[in-house]
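Service request form, structural biology core

Requester: graduate student, group of Dr. S.
Request type: structure prediction, single chain
Budget code: on file
Notes: please return the result as structure tokens.

Sequence provided:
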Amino acid sequence: MIAKKYDASKDKQFQILDQSGKVVNAKYEPKLTKETLLKMYRTAVLGRYADIKALQYQRQGRMLTYAPSMGQEATQVGLAAAMEPQDWNSPMYRELGIQLYRGVPLESIYLYWYGNERGSIRPEGVKILPTNIIIGSQSNLAAGLAMASKIRKTNEVTVFTIGDGGTSHGEFYEGLNFAAVFKAPVVAVIQNNHYAISTHVSKASNSETLAQKGAAFGIPFVQVDGNDMLAMYVVSKEAMDRARNGEGPTLIEAVTYRMGPHTTSDDPTLYRTKEEEDTWKEKDPIIRFKNYLIDKGYWSEEEDAKLVEEVNAEINDTFKKVESYGANVELEEIFEHTFAEWTPQLKEQYEEHKKFLKEGAK
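Core staff response, request fulfilled:
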């Protein structure tokens, strides 16, 4: 078992590919099909360029605040590839790779950041909760979902994703403690991108690793190279198999790096150096995985150039559609997805806002 219950802080990060894309841990290299590997790579590339374009759209005043995932593609896509169709994701707000791999159209993702309520609608059968900006609460939601799955015997696993800063919030501990006590089928993934907005992880926790926080819950935990897509797949798959077998949660710390700003409202040059950013550019997860695919004979630089051209065309066409819809939705849509049935308070708020809009139009 890769994940351990004790002394994981003394182990090196679990890794299969080094930063150049060479296999350094052949014992654990997963036997994935060429089709699956290429899907993983294409999703990562689409996510990277969708992020770049979204930043441009926002700067042009054509999109609202956006939270890019640049640099974290391997963590997210490796995790998503290990999930089964029936599994749930209780997300935070930086999950582009997971959403794309699991079947959420880029159109829906852009709609959300554009300010259109319909961007939160998931395709039939895609079990991803709406984007969650309440830091730490995804842990409690995951524990509840997983307990329901256990009671109903649905063979579902719930994965929740959280940032390094989110592990300082009480709900992270409350949800994971509950899941551990009741052996709920939960996999907790910390995306340690080193910064909670501008606060470095060293200022947020005195632990040698964030993974070792799993010791307090009595569950297995592991620190993994989050820029290694294969390593992320392997540890996630092991954790999900454990959860599906009734063995309870696992805590995974994926050590990665946020290459862009926290959101489009952030300026990372105020709190980190160019030297630090350049060091992490050399660990770029997409370049690493591309080199691995080329070495296996599954990919080429010519095919890569064509893919970049294709995804940029796809992104441009998608955003044209999003802009054609605008942010306009029926007022009821903003209120109707909060509860199965409207509460008296929700009805009151709706009527108040409806009146406000009507008077403002005069």
